[in-house]
């Protein structure tokens, strides 16, 4: 519109552009991989004999869509935001340019560049959420990529080879994982809290106390430890660290607090009924926190703040909806929440491109500073490794949890940009002895999984191609480095590199190109889910549940379970923005 970028327009016009973007993306950028032929007819999920699946989230995510019960369940394919003809693994150029060279030249953290609009909880939160949304599972052990390592690369002297297992193949394909590339999501696609609860019945049963609907947690306030891994017992661990443990602990406590209130109101309810309702409420509360708190914190443009609040409450706002209720079925006026369900142009599945734009590892710091929540005194400094994997519990026992939350609240994560990828993750040594450069692996994964490179991706989502490296970034050094790494071939720039290099809208925490996928998928995760749309009602959630979701925030959840933080949180409106530092005595 008017040749002016949307984010520089007056707010009403910027909002109009955002809604236009979303409508176009809904029409053009939802592509169904389930139509690719299967090896055989896949088994259909089995409904529960007691009809529990009608009003509760199922362990594997089935029966969210009652007409297509397999939609979005664990073990189904990722969808696509690009045409299937573009979703092709570029076998000939998987190592071109070398992912390790990309990592060393463009991604290495030269110094810590902070994202000053955020606190470190924003980094913990997004990994906590992505663990709910997607995983490709463990890599193949017998099929590996050998990433070339130059003789002058310190990696060769320290570790020798740089190998990484291939992504697990789509076992449902009769032709192997051929073009178009398809892969399986090993967790549910829905926004259902599966990172806490698990994506299968056995996992959920192990995590429940089976008393009053509650989840297992010790009297010491810590989650049970897995005796083999030494990591918290949760629905999905992934790459575990102290920030994840803090979030999991907090929202297991929140689940149990919801159970307590439901039990008071419905004393005759059995364990399953209490659990089912608490899960519904807890999952919806997390979705709301992400929509109206985390997102406006990382994208603090007035138009995006209004747009994300509109997703939840509508353009007329929270107070109007709470007082008057919905005005018809319009998601614009009254929000997506409580509207009719709509999958638009393809069945609901999270997409490979959605996975790609959430590669935000630069948010992670390489070291922590811990301060007292009581007087602001510096307690200790720790390298990231001290809070990684099974070491996380020892750190949480050494530094009290209120101090951890306060310290994360006043610390900044890293900016999502070039030359800011954590060194710890570029030299990641896992507990099983596996060593890899995660930055190089991120580059390789997009190529392996058929995610288009940056320029073609821009074109597909409606932004148009760039012709020069200087059109990507106004940083002349970055443009020079990209030109050298990609041999002056603008169309070869990897998606993640382009996203990190882009000049971003003022105040944004990540690129405008990534934001286009976010515009589409942030709404889709709500609009396709019947528990956020037609079944977001008191008959399913209870009125207590709806009130709990509406009346709570990240700050109130923190305050409820760690009242020691009252002073630190006194002036905090958005828990993901920097907290006020207490003056050290």
Rg is 23 Å
Large-scale geometry:
globular
What is the assigned CATH homologous superfamily of the domain at 96-173 and 191-450 and 507-565? Haem peroxidase domain superfamily, animal type
- The number of distinct helices, counting runs of at least 4 residues, comes to 24
What is the overall pLDDT average? 94
Instruction: Give me the CATH fold name of the domain at 96-173 and 191-450 and 507-565.
Output: Myeloperoxidase, subunit C
CATH architectural designation of the domain at 96-173 and 191-450 and 507-565: Orthogonal Bundle
N→C terminal distance: 54 Å
Biggest sheet statistics: 2 strands, antiparallel
Low-confidence stretches: none
Hey, roughly how much beta strand do the residues contain?
under 5%
What is the CATH C level class of the domain at 96-173 and 191-450 and 507-565, in words?
Mainly Alpha
N-to-C order of helices and strands: HHHEHEHHHHHHHHEEHHHEEHHHHHHHHH
Strand order, largest beta sheet: 1-2
How many strands in all?
6
């Amino acid at each position: 519109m008017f040749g002016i970028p949307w984010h520089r327009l007056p707010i009403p016009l910027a909002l109009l552009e955002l809604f236009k973007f979303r409508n176009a993306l809904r029409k053009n950028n939802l592509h169904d991989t389930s139509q690719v032929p299967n090896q055989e007819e896949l088994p259909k999920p089995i409904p529960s004999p007691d009809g529990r699946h009608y009003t509760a989230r199922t362990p594997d995510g089935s029966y969210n869509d009652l007409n297509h019960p397999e939609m979005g369940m664990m073990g189904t394919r990722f969808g696509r935001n690009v045409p299937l003809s573009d979703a092709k693994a570029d076998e000939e150029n998987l190592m071109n340019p070398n992912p390790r060279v990309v990592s060393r030249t463009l991604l290495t953290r030269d110094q810590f560049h902070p994202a000053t609009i955020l606190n470190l909880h924003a980094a913990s939160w997004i990994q906590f959420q992505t663990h709910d949304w997607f995983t490709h599972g463990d890599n193949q052990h017998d099929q590996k990529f050998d990433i070339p390592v130059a003789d002058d690369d310190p990696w060769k002297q320290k570790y020798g080879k740089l190998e990484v297992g291939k992504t697990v193949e789509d076992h449902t394909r009769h032709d192997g994982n051929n073009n178009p590339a398809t892969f399986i999501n090993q967790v549910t696609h829905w926004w259902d809290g599966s990172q806490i609860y698990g994506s299968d019945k056995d996992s959920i049963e192990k995590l429940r106390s089976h008393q009053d609907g509650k989840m297992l947690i010790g009297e010491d306030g810590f989650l049970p430890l897995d005796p083999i891994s030494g990591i918290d017992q949760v629905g999905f661990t992934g790459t575990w660290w102290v920030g994840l443990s803090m979030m999991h602990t907090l929202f297991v406590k929140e689940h149990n607090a919801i159970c307590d209130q439901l039990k008071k109101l419905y004393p005759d309810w059995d364990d399953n009924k209490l659990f089912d309702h608490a899960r519904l409420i807890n999952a919806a509360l997390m979705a709301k926190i992400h929509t109206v708190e985390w997102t406006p914190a990382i994208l603090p443009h007035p138009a995006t703040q209004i747009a994300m609040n509109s997703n939840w409450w509508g353009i007329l706002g929270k107070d109007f909806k709470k007082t008057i209720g919905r005005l018809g079925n319009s998601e614009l006026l009254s929000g997506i929440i409580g509207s009719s369900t709509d999958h638009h142009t393809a069945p609901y599945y999270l997409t490979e491109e959605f996975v790609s734009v959430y590669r935000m590892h630069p948010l992670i710091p390489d070291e922590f500073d811990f301060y007292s929540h009581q007087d602001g005194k510096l307690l200790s400094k720790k390298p990231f490794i001290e809070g990684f994997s099974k070491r996380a519990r020892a750190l949480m026992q050494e530094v009290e949890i209120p101090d951890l939350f306060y310290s994360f609240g006043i610390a900044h994560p890293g900016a999502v940009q070039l030359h800011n990828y954590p060194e710890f993750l570029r030299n990641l040594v896992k507990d099983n002895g596996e060593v890899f450069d995660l930055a190089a692996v991120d580059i390789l994964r997009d190529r392996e999984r058929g995610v288009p490179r940056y320029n073609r991706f821009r074109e597909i989502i409606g932004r148009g191609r760039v012709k020069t490296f200087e059109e990507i970034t106004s940083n002349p050094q970055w443009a020079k480095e990209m030109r050298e790494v990609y041999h002056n071939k603008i169309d070869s720039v990897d998606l993640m590199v382009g996203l990190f290099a882009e000049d971003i809208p003022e105040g944004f925490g990540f690129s405008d190109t990534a934001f286009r996928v976010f515009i589409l998928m942030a709404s889709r995760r709500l609009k396709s889910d019947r528990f956020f749309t037609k079944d977001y009602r008191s008959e399913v959630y209870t009125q207590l549940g709806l009130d709990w979701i509406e009346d709570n925030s990240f700050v109130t959840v923190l305050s409820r379970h760690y009242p020691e933080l009252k002073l630190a949180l006194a002036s905090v409106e958005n828990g993901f923005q920097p907290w006020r530092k207490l003056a050290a005595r």
